Protein backbone atom coordinates (compact mmCIF):
# COMPACT_ATOMS: atom_id res chain seq x y z
CA UNK A 1 0.00 0.00 0.00
CA UNK A 2 1.47 3.34 -1.00
CA UNK A 3 1.05 6.64 0.80
CA UNK A 4 -1.63 8.96 -0.49
CA UNK A 5 -0.61 12.22 -2.16
CA UNK A 6 -3.17 15.04 -2.02
CA UNK A 7 -4.11 16.87 -5.17
CA UNK A 8 -3.90 15.24 -8.56
CA UNK A 9 -2.52 11.84 -9.41
CA UNK A 10 0.37 9.96 -7.89
CA UNK A 11 3.87 11.43 -8.28
CA UNK A 12 5.97 10.17 -11.15
CA UNK A 13 8.48 7.56 -10.03
CA UNK A 14 12.10 7.67 -11.13
CA UNK A 15 12.92 5.56 -14.20
CA UNK A 16 12.94 1.87 -13.24
CA UNK A 17 16.49 1.35 -14.54
CA UNK A 18 17.71 3.91 -11.97
CA UNK A 19 16.24 1.96 -9.05
CA UNK A 20 17.03 -1.49 -7.61
CA UNK A 21 14.45 -3.93 -8.94
CA UNK A 22 13.96 -5.60 -5.54
CA UNK A 23 12.65 -2.34 -4.06
CA UNK A 24 9.36 -3.17 -5.78
CA UNK A 25 8.89 -5.89 -3.14
CA UNK A 26 10.02 -3.82 -0.14
CA UNK A 27 7.69 -2.13 2.37
CA UNK A 28 8.52 0.79 4.67
CA UNK A 29 6.59 2.10 7.68
CA UNK A 30 6.92 5.84 8.38
CA UNK A 31 6.02 7.11 11.87
CA UNK A 32 5.80 10.89 12.45
CA UNK A 33 3.33 13.20 14.17
CA UNK A 34 4.00 16.04 11.71
CA UNK A 35 1.65 15.85 8.72
CA UNK A 36 4.20 17.81 6.67
CA UNK A 37 6.91 15.20 7.22
CA UNK A 38 4.49 12.38 6.43
CA UNK A 39 3.59 14.20 3.21
CA UNK A 40 7.26 14.62 2.31
CA UNK A 41 8.26 11.04 3.11
CA UNK A 42 5.31 9.69 1.13
CA UNK A 43 6.23 11.80 -1.91
CA UNK A 44 9.88 10.75 -1.76
CA UNK A 45 9.12 7.05 -1.28
CA UNK A 46 6.62 7.18 -4.14
CA UNK A 47 9.35 8.77 -6.25
CA UNK A 48 11.64 5.86 -5.36
CA UNK A 49 8.95 3.29 -6.11
CA UNK A 50 8.84 1.94 -2.54
CA UNK A 51 5.53 0.82 -1.01
CA UNK A 52 4.86 2.34 2.41
CA UNK A 53 2.40 3.07 5.21
CA UNK A 54 2.15 6.27 7.25
CA UNK A 55 1.12 6.57 10.91
CA UNK A 56 1.35 9.45 13.39
CA UNK A 57 2.58 7.86 16.62
CA UNK A 58 4.41 4.86 18.05
CA UNK A 59 1.29 3.15 19.37
CA UNK A 60 -0.30 3.11 15.93
CA UNK A 61 2.97 1.77 14.51
CA UNK A 62 3.05 -1.14 16.97
CA UNK A 63 -0.54 -2.04 16.11
CA UNK A 64 0.33 -2.26 12.41
CA UNK A 65 3.61 -4.09 13.05
CA UNK A 66 1.70 -6.73 15.03
CA UNK A 67 -0.29 -7.76 11.96
CA UNK A 68 1.73 -6.67 8.94
CA UNK A 69 5.28 -7.17 7.64
CA UNK A 70 7.69 -4.32 6.88
CA UNK A 71 11.31 -4.31 5.79
CA UNK A 72 12.16 -0.99 7.44
CA UNK A 73 10.68 1.46 9.96
CA UNK A 74 11.57 5.17 9.83
CA UNK A 75 10.34 6.89 12.99
CA UNK A 76 10.40 10.32 14.58
CA UNK A 77 11.83 10.16 18.10
CA UNK A 78 9.58 12.56 20.03
CA UNK A 79 5.84 12.22 19.45
CA UNK A 80 2.67 12.41 21.55
CA UNK A 81 0.85 9.21 22.63
CA UNK A 82 4.02 7.10 22.24
CA UNK A 83 7.46 8.30 21.19
CA UNK A 84 9.85 6.51 18.88
CA UNK A 85 12.15 5.34 21.69
CA UNK A 86 9.32 3.61 23.57
CA UNK A 87 7.98 2.11 20.34
CA UNK A 88 11.37 0.65 19.45
CA UNK A 89 11.95 -0.81 22.91
CA UNK A 90 8.54 -2.51 22.78
CA UNK A 91 9.15 -3.78 19.24
CA UNK A 92 12.49 -5.30 20.30
CA UNK A 93 10.81 -6.95 23.33
CA UNK A 94 8.14 -8.48 21.09
CA UNK A 95 10.77 -9.72 18.63
CA UNK A 96 12.76 -11.39 21.43
CA UNK A 97 9.69 -13.08 22.88
CA UNK A 98 8.49 -14.32 19.49
CA UNK A 99 11.96 -15.21 18.23
CA UNK A 100 11.12 -13.25 15.09
CA UNK A 101 13.44 -11.47 12.69
CA UNK A 102 14.65 -8.02 13.69
CA UNK A 103 13.10 -5.16 11.70
CA UNK A 104 15.55 -2.27 11.23
CA UNK A 105 14.36 1.00 12.81
CA UNK A 106 15.87 4.33 11.76
CA UNK A 107 15.41 7.52 13.76
CA UNK A 108 14.06 10.52 11.86
CA UNK A 109 15.55 13.39 13.84
CA UNK A 110 16.12 17.13 13.57
CA UNK A 111 19.42 16.98 15.43
CA UNK A 112 22.06 14.37 16.19
CA UNK A 113 23.98 15.27 19.31
CA UNK A 114 25.85 12.65 21.38
CA UNK A 115 22.88 12.31 23.76
CA UNK A 116 20.52 11.73 20.83
CA UNK A 117 22.80 8.97 19.51
CA UNK A 118 22.93 7.38 22.99
CA UNK A 119 19.13 7.37 23.24
CA UNK A 120 18.75 5.86 19.77
CA UNK A 121 21.22 3.08 20.49
CA UNK A 122 19.86 2.40 24.00
CA UNK A 123 16.33 1.70 22.76
CA UNK A 124 17.48 -0.54 19.91
CA UNK A 125 17.36 1.73 16.88
CA UNK A 126 19.73 0.81 14.06
CA UNK A 127 20.53 4.17 12.47
CA UNK A 128 19.25 7.63 11.78
CA UNK A 129 18.09 10.00 9.07
CA UNK A 130 18.75 13.66 9.85
CA UNK A 131 16.20 16.27 8.83
CA UNK A 132 15.78 17.95 6.41
CA UNK A 133 15.32 14.87 4.23
CA UNK A 134 16.18 15.04 0.54
CA UNK A 135 15.55 12.51 -2.22
CA UNK A 136 19.29 11.85 -2.60
CA UNK A 137 19.83 11.27 1.13
CA UNK A 138 16.85 8.92 1.41
CA UNK A 139 17.89 6.95 -1.66
CA UNK A 140 21.41 6.54 -0.21
CA UNK A 141 19.98 5.23 3.06
CA UNK A 142 17.59 2.81 1.33
CA UNK A 143 20.39 1.41 -0.82
CA UNK A 144 21.95 0.22 2.44
CA UNK A 145 18.91 -0.92 4.43
CA UNK A 146 16.91 -2.29 1.48
CA UNK A 147 19.85 -3.86 -0.34
CA UNK A 148 19.12 -7.15 -2.09
CA UNK A 149 21.13 -9.17 0.42
CA UNK A 150 20.35 -7.15 3.54
CA UNK A 151 16.57 -6.96 3.75
CA UNK A 152 15.68 -7.82 7.34
CA UNK A 153 19.39 -8.21 8.18
CA UNK A 154 21.33 -6.65 11.02
CA UNK A 155 24.04 -4.38 9.70
CA UNK A 156 25.98 -1.45 11.09
CA UNK A 157 24.30 1.86 10.25
CA UNK A 158 25.97 4.22 7.80
CA UNK A 159 27.44 7.32 9.39
CA UNK A 160 25.69 10.59 8.55
CA UNK A 161 27.01 13.95 9.57
CA UNK A 162 24.57 16.51 10.90
CA UNK A 163 23.70 19.10 8.24
CA UNK A 164 25.63 22.34 8.49
CA UNK A 165 23.89 25.52 9.52
CA UNK A 166 22.17 27.05 6.54
CA UNK A 167 20.61 30.35 5.66
CA UNK A 168 16.93 30.71 4.95
CA UNK A 169 15.77 28.48 2.10
CA UNK A 170 15.40 29.93 -1.37
CA UNK A 171 13.29 28.78 -4.28
CA UNK A 172 16.45 27.39 -5.89
CA UNK A 173 17.52 25.47 -2.77
CA UNK A 174 14.04 23.99 -2.34
CA UNK A 175 13.95 22.83 -5.95
CA UNK A 176 17.41 21.32 -5.53
CA UNK A 177 16.24 19.39 -2.45
CA UNK A 178 12.76 18.28 -3.53
CA UNK A 179 12.85 18.23 -7.32
CA UNK A 180 9.79 20.13 -8.55
CA UNK A 181 7.60 23.01 -7.40
CA UNK A 182 4.61 20.64 -7.52
CA UNK A 183 6.23 18.83 -4.57
CA UNK A 184 7.52 21.98 -2.82
CA UNK A 185 4.32 24.08 -2.85
CA UNK A 186 2.04 21.70 -0.88
CA UNK A 187 4.88 21.03 1.59
CA UNK A 188 5.27 24.77 2.23
CA UNK A 189 1.51 25.20 2.59
CA UNK A 190 1.27 22.33 5.06
CA UNK A 191 4.27 23.53 7.08
CA UNK A 192 2.93 27.10 7.33
CA UNK A 193 -0.54 25.89 8.31
CA UNK A 194 0.77 23.53 11.00
CA UNK A 195 3.13 26.17 12.38
CA UNK A 196 0.31 28.73 12.73
CA UNK A 197 -1.75 26.13 14.61
CA UNK A 198 1.15 25.44 16.95
CA UNK A 199 1.77 29.16 17.52
CA UNK A 200 -1.85 29.48 18.58
CA UNK A 201 -1.48 26.45 20.84
CA UNK A 202 1.73 27.90 22.27
CA UNK A 203 -0.03 31.16 23.12
CA UNK A 204 -2.80 29.28 24.94
CA UNK A 205 -0.26 27.17 26.84
CA UNK A 206 1.60 30.32 27.91
CA UNK A 207 -1.62 31.98 29.05
CA UNK A 208 -2.46 29.00 31.26
CA UNK A 209 1.18 28.64 32.43
CA UNK A 210 1.11 25.01 31.27
CA UNK A 211 4.80 24.04 31.03
CA UNK A 212 4.22 20.59 29.50
CA UNK A 213 1.96 21.93 26.76
CA UNK A 214 4.33 24.83 26.10
CA UNK A 215 7.22 22.40 25.59
CA UNK A 216 5.00 20.23 23.36
CA UNK A 217 4.25 23.12 20.98
CA UNK A 218 7.86 24.30 21.05
CA UNK A 219 8.94 20.80 20.04
CA UNK A 220 6.48 20.73 17.16
CA UNK A 221 7.59 24.20 16.03
CA UNK A 222 11.26 23.30 16.08
CA UNK A 223 10.42 20.19 14.05
CA UNK A 224 8.67 22.34 11.47
CA UNK A 225 11.54 24.82 11.40
CA UNK A 226 14.10 22.04 10.82
CA UNK A 227 12.04 20.70 7.91
CA UNK A 228 13.60 23.15 5.43
CA UNK A 229 17.05 23.31 7.02
CA UNK A 230 18.62 24.63 10.21
CA UNK A 231 17.89 28.26 11.14
CA UNK A 232 18.55 30.51 14.09
CA UNK A 233 15.11 29.52 15.43
CA UNK A 234 16.13 25.95 16.28
CA UNK A 235 18.63 26.77 19.09
CA UNK A 236 16.15 29.32 20.46
CA UNK A 237 13.44 26.67 20.73
CA UNK A 238 15.79 24.09 22.30
CA UNK A 239 16.93 26.67 24.88
CA UNK A 240 13.32 27.60 25.64
CA UNK A 241 12.26 23.95 26.09
CA UNK A 242 15.09 23.38 28.58
CA UNK A 243 14.36 26.58 30.53
CA UNK A 244 10.58 26.16 30.60
CA UNK A 245 11.06 22.66 32.04
CA UNK A 246 13.53 23.94 34.66
CA UNK A 247 12.05 27.32 35.61
CA UNK A 248 8.45 27.38 34.38
CA UNK A 249 6.55 29.40 31.79
CA UNK A 250 6.33 32.69 33.70
CA UNK A 251 10.09 33.20 33.93
CA UNK A 252 10.46 32.67 30.17
CA UNK A 253 7.58 34.92 29.13
CA UNK A 254 9.72 37.58 27.41
CA UNK A 255 11.88 35.03 25.56
CA UNK A 256 8.76 33.16 24.45
CA UNK A 257 7.24 36.37 23.09
CA UNK A 258 10.41 37.11 21.12
CA UNK A 259 10.46 33.57 19.75
CA UNK A 260 6.81 33.88 18.71
CA UNK A 261 7.60 37.05 16.72
CA UNK A 262 10.66 35.46 15.12
CA UNK A 263 8.61 32.45 13.98
CA UNK A 264 5.92 34.75 12.57
CA UNK A 265 8.56 36.59 10.54
CA UNK A 266 9.95 33.30 9.24
CA UNK A 267 6.48 32.09 8.23
CA UNK A 268 5.82 35.39 6.45
CA UNK A 269 9.05 34.84 4.52
CA UNK A 270 8.00 31.30 3.58
CA UNK A 271 4.55 32.55 2.54
CA UNK A 272 6.13 35.10 0.23
CA UNK A 273 8.44 32.42 -1.13
CA UNK A 274 5.45 30.18 -1.85
CA UNK A 275 3.67 32.93 -3.78
CA UNK A 276 6.76 34.23 -5.58
CA UNK A 277 6.68 32.01 -8.64
TrEMBL record:
Q: Which domain of life is it from?
A: Bacteria
Residue positions, PTM 4-aspartylphosphate: 76
Under Gene3D superfamilies, the record lists: 3.40.50.2300
Q: Does the keyword Phosphoprotein apply?
A: yes
Q: Which PROSITE patterns match?
A: RESPONSE_REGULATORY
Q: Which GO terms describe its cellular component?
A: plasma membrane
Where would one find coiled-coil regions in this protein?
none
For biological process, the GO terms are: phosphorelay signal transduction system
Where does the Response regulatory domain start and stop, copy by copy? 27-146
Task: Enumerate the CDD domains for this protein.
Answer: REC_hyHK_CKI1_RcsC-like
Instruction: For this UniProt record, give its keywords in alphabetical order, as a comma-separated list.
Output: Phosphoprotein, Two-component regulatory system
Molecular function as annotated in GO: ATP binding; protein kinase activity
Tagged with keyword Phosphoprotein: yes
What Pfam family does this protein match (any one)?
Answer: Response_reg
Under PANTHER family, the record lists: HISTIDINE KINASE (PTHR45339:SF3), HYBRID SIGNAL TRANSDUCTION HISTIDINE KINASE J (PTHR45339)
By what name is this protein known? Answer: Response regulatory domain-containing protein
Source organism of the structure: Pseudomonas poae
Amino acid sequence: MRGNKPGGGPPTALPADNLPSHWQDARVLVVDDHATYRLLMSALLDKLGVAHRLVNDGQAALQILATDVFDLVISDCRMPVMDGYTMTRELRRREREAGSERVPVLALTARLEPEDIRLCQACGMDGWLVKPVSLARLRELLRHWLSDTCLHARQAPPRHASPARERRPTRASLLASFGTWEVVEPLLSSLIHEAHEDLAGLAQAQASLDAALTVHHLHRLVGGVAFLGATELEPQAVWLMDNVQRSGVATCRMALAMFHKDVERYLQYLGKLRLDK
